[in-house]
Amino acid sequence: MPSVPTILLTPDNALGKIAIAVANPDSPHHNDVWRSNPNEEGGAAIRICNTLGVDGTFNDYNVASGELYTYFVDAVDGAGVTARSASASSSVQLASTRLHATTKQVSTSNLQSSGLALRELIPWERAPEIASESFLMGGATTPEVHTGVIEQEIISFLNRIPVGQTAERALLKSLFELGAFMCLRDTFGNKFFGSLAGYTEAYSHTWLDVPIVFQVLDYKESVG
Asked: N or C: where does the chain have the smaller number of CB atoms within 10 Å of the terminal CB?
């Protein structure tokens, strides 16, 4: 039987994640990470990772702003015997709207929109074992994905980049040219997935304005 693990939670408002760091007194086969929230599955715990290694850290990006999440970890030995940690709770306040992008291929690109500029943010990993338009976010599969369901809804916002920040402009423009598959996550944690309308820009003396418009929504996930 494995020894009882301990966990340490670290919320990160800027990146919109809760990090669950596991300390194993011995070397189990792996760790299962569990999470519960009153608004998910009636408050029942759901397993969000079953492959975490010894003394590993799991980054849970699939969190809604202001919601309290409770976590515990099961250390699992080679025979399937488990030892459970004590539980701990944490929450985050998402700091800004984020625009993530992937080309639906193995390579990924990521952006954050702060209203003034763009910068690279968290990596997304494609999940080859599930549908082509479903993705892993920090290791956790996105819930209730209905691939191919088109919603007649337009989501848009204006990204304003200071003139002279050519790197941000070039990065954003390259995503449009790739025909990237996009995810917009707002400050509440709602997520919108789909394709963008064409790239346009408008100059002023000090700003470059680029409209970010979802032409087609493949699906969305609302946190309420």
From this structure: C
Angle (CA) 24-33-25 rounded to 5° is 5
CA 97 remoteness from chain centre: 12
| pLDDT of res. 100 | 61
Q: How far is CA 61 from the centre of its chain?
A: 4
> Is the model's pLDDT at 79 over the cut of 90?
yes
**Residue with structure tokens 């459970």?**
84
> What distances in angstroms separate CA 52 from CA 81, 138, 167, one per listed residue?
16, 12, 36
DSSP SS3 for 173: helix
Buried b (16+ CB within 10 A) or exposed e, 29-63: ebbbbbbbbeebeeeeeeebbeebebebebbbbbb
Rounded average pLDDT over 75-92: 96
Q: Which tens digit of pLDDT belongs to each residue from 127-158?
A: 222 222 222 232 223 333 333 333 334 456 56
Quote the tokens at residue 126: 């494609």
Q: Residue 175: helix, strand or coil by DSSP?
A: helix
Q: What is the pTM of this model?
A: 0.59
What would the pLDDT profile of 30-40 be if each residue is shown by its tens digit?
Answer: 999 999 998 88
Average pLDDT over residues 190-199: 72
- Distance CA(48)–CA(174), nearest Å, equals 33
By the 10 Å C-beta count (0-12 exposed, 13-18 middle, 19+ buried), 185 is classed as: buried
